[in-house]
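cache lookup: miss for this entity combination. No prior model stored, computing from scratch. Input as submitted by user K.M.:
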Amino acid sequence: MLQSLLLSVGWLNSSTSLLAVAIEGEGFGKALAIAIGLTGLALLLTSAVFEELAARVGLPSVLGNLIAGLVIGISGLHILVLEGGEVNTSFISLIHSLTHVDLEVIKEVFDGPVKTIFENYAELGVGILLFTIGLESDLEDLLKVGLQSAMVAIVGFGLPFVLGFFGLTLLFHVATLPALFAGAALTATSIGITAQVMQDMGVLKSKEGQIILGAAIIDDILGIVILAVIISIVETGKIDVGNGISLILIAASFIMLAVLMNQFFGSWFVEQSEKLKSPKSIGRGAFTLLLLMSVIAGSIGLESILGAFAAGLVLSSTKYKEIFIERSSVLVNLLATVFFVSIGSKTDLSILNPSVPANREGLIIAAFLIVVAIIGKVTSGFFAFSEEKVNRIAIGTGMIPRGEVGLVFAGLGAATGVLPPSIDVGIILMVIFTTFLAPPLLRIVFKSSESTVVETPEVS
Amino acid sequence: MLQSLLLSVGWLNSSTSLLAVAIEGEGFGKALAIAIGLTGLALLLTSAVFEELAARVGLPSVLGNLIAGLVIGISGLHILVLEGGEVNTSFISLIHSLTHVDLEVIKEVFDGPVKTIFENYAELGVGILLFTIGLESDLEDLLKVGLQSAMVAIVGFGLPFVLGFFGLTLLFHVATLPALFAGAALTATSIGITAQVMQDMGVLKSKEGQIILGAAIIDDILGIVILAVIISIVETGKIDVGNGISLILIAASFIMLAVLMNQFFGSWFVEQSEKLKSPKSIGRGAFTLLLLMSVIAGSIGLESILGAFAAGLVLSSTKYKEIFIERSSVLVNLLATVFFVSIGSKTDLSILNPSVPANREGLIIAAFLIVVAIIGKVTSGFFAFSEEKVNRIAIGTGMIPRGEVGLVFAGLGAATGVLPPSIDVGIILMVIFTTFLAPPLLRIVFKSSESTVVETPEVS
């Protein structure tokens, strides 16, 4: 009966094509949901396997995540493809057979939204990780070692830059601009990787941990300044000293702001949140502050994660500190993993293939850069002047990983077309090597150390 | 010195345009970070204000979220624009002045990634909400009231559909196909809204709560079946009975699977996770199961959130139940808010404007649909046969909100072009009205009820 009723409506045919559009839209959403779910599953399962292996042989979980990224990323199965390359066709076929959505639509889903979403998880993850690092920090301790941190940062910034720049220009006859980019990439320190390893080992609150943290923050700021300077050189042919100085002043003001807010704002803010009737307001308040500080940092040209760290620092003297740390650990547990896996997934090991000529040159340059990268940062540890005994090797080792910051420099250099392939390969290999080397090295140097290890409970 | 060095390189000029590309890419990322941060801040602050107001006048926080969505969505400030319409130009200018990124690039950022990311948060939020609802459910209680839930679901599905379809065709002389879509939209129940309100009130574990939950799940499955049937009618002009039956069988198998997994798999799975050395493995294991069940549900044509609910149910008899609930609450607290605000933000109140002729007709049809929507669902509550005293009015009221499910029906109908404007307006108004009405109504009927209120601690 219904059938004949419907057929009598008459305009069924005219609307069919419009429905097709609607159903195609439906297919996009369906394919997206399944694509995110399966990519997420692959990410979680692979990192579970390699974290477990890392735990059993006594290596840090971060290394397990990085290797998981190699396995599912552009060097391996092509399941998590965040930049460059195509997603594994078998994986696309699997989603096609589950959803019956057109292959083309599934490819579109992977090209756009899936990348956007996993990049966003990764950024959120490292942001919340830095927020908890800020929460776990003690402002007084950080300020107490401020001078030592500054010395470590300046030496760990200047030495690799100078050695790298003059080594490349004088020994390898590399042109000035690529040598500048390579030098800049050598200055970077990945605060995320070192902080996560130290947090897992419970040495974040040791004197060494606080010096590394402070130095990594200063290093990040110096890195942003050098990047701005190099870009102004490429753009205008001139060094914009004014811009560099104003960036340093802005960064210093931001740190001052965080210190003042820690003293005069954090506890007041939490008390105000407490007064609200809505039961969720305290946690929401903290997250609002995290977003706000990240936006401020991003707006004034700093990295957003420095804002997240500052927000954690502001709340680190409040009575909810421990609760905030515990609650954030749920997000860190899931999302920081995405961040570390994503670093591994973007790592292209095919540049190790020596049958490509640029790779052979790159390997030689990489060997040089790696030596400079390690010597420069390890030396910086010895500038942590202190009357107390501190493990200076551990401090220098903590500064070694270039991680995501190094990749930003390499990526920006490559995108400008300024870098010859061999230098590009050399920088990327240096970033990979220092990033993968640092977690196991850190474990060794902290284990053999006289540092005051404060055991923090492991989060599950 | 460096300047002259650089100028002597010579190929500075040729690389400038390439650098512009790189910097533009950088600008996109920067604009995206700030856009997400500021949109997130607007969302959190607005919902904080309206949740607080709701808490002070004794209304559910969900209503506060929905109203916050009206304020920042397409009916208000145009800050959170997930479908249709343009983002507020002042908001775009603000981001431009903070980032110095081109206005066009910022618009692109809002058109693509920002929508994708907030939609994703919303979906993740409702998924994890349903996961905790599953965790808090007691399988035995659910099965005990299974027959009552089925009765409530069938009546609450059939009655509004029949009343709506024949009312529209006979009284309003609406054509068959639009009347079918309107009837189908009347059958929906938003499990998310009712579950959140009941969870906040601590009545989720009452007999009424479990009946509503069971009925809403069955209703969801019936809704998917009717949608598939209507689409096959529009596509082929025939009712595909086989497809409808196979969908019901698949859904029944999935529910059976969840029941069996609850009995034989959940505790074993948790014990295996416990054995792993990696400290994060238990929480990760739970999240992996959540993703897996969602993907399975999505693949067999069910809603992903039913899979999330099933995953919660599977883990609800394990010893980690309380820990999982507590940990998930952090994610729910942030992300379910995004979900409810997003529903409000998509609500277009301009269709209330009576100066548009289709709106006047729509208002009359809406009035009819709203009456049918409420009568149909409230009546269904009386079919919860029970020897014990149960609050049947509360059960029926719990089924009233159409929420996101109703919007899916309306959206699909509108996209087909099958719906005349007045019917489209009528359906949307019905969805809005029932969605906004249900939270305060639920609070009234449960307060005046004889239901066994089990107080659960509020999560912060």
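stored under new cache key. Chain B has two domains: 20-117, 129-447.
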